[in-house]
């Protein structure tokens, strides 16, 4: 796209015609992760200053979706999947399979460019962590989180998410 090398990087800086032309000229890939796993990762990285996971979750809920940090903001509000038609949606936990396919589709030698990905171990670890962290939350916090991430849960197949219930 002719303006791709400008300093403007946010789509909101362009008009509708430019956005349509720009998005049409790229392969659009969206990487998604279970919102509850995103919360756990953010907490473990120490992004919040909360002493416990439960208090961290309460801080997230109190911030609301409009004031939420990009680290835990619902994906639907960040990537606009209803407005932007992504060519590929790659889910965390299946990176090994999906990235190899994506690279082959792009005409690149998939296997030789990827580091070894241990998707099964990551899935098992996050499942265990999710069980531990979910048990720390009150019933009210669980329900509020399910509402907070409701659009993400509807838009993406996070069928094994603790928030899906």
UniProtKB/TrEMBL annotation:
Source species, domain of life: Eukaryota
GO biological process: carbohydrate biosynthetic process; dermatan sulfate proteoglycan metabolic process
Record-listed E.C. numbers: 2.8.2.-
Keywords: Carbohydrate metabolism, Glycoprotein, Golgi apparatus, Membrane, Signal-anchor, Transferase, Transmembrane, Transmembrane helix
PANTHER family per record: CARBOHYDRATE SULFOTRANSFERASE
Catalytic class of the enzyme: transferase
Lineage: Eukaryota, Metazoa, Chordata, Craniata, Vertebrata
Annotated Gene Ontology cellular component terms: Golgi membrane
InterPro entries in the cross-refs: Carb_sulfotrans_8-10, Sulfotransferase
Keyword Transmembrane helix: yes
Protein name in the entry: Carbohydrate sulfotransferase
Topology in membrane: Single-pass type II membrane protein
Gene that this polypeptide is encoded by: Chst8_1
Family according to the record: Belongs to the sulfotransferase 2 family.
Molecular function via GO: sulfotransferase activity
Localization per record: Golgi apparatus membrane
């Amino acid at each position: 796209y002719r303006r791709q090398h400008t300093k403007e990087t946010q789509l909101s800086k362009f008009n509708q015609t430019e956005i349509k032309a720009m998005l049409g000229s790229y392969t659009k890939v969206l990487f998604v992760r279970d919102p509850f796993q995103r919360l756990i990762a953010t907490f473990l990285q120490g992004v919040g200053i909360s002493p416990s996971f439960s208090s961290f979750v309460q801080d997230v809920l109190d911030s609301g979706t409009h004031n939420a940090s990009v680290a835990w903001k619902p994906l639907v509000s960040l990537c606009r999947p209803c407005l932007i038609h992504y060519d590929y949606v790659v889910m965390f936990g299946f990176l090994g399979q999906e990235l190899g396919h994506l690279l082959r589709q792009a005409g690149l030698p998939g296997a030789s460019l990827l580091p070894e990905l241990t998707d099964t171990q990551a899935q098992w670890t996050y499942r265990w962590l999710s069980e531990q962290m979910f048990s720390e939350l009150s019933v009210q916090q669980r329900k509020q989180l399910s509402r907070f991430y409701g659009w993400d849960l509807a838009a993406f197949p996070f069928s094994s998410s603790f928030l899906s219930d």
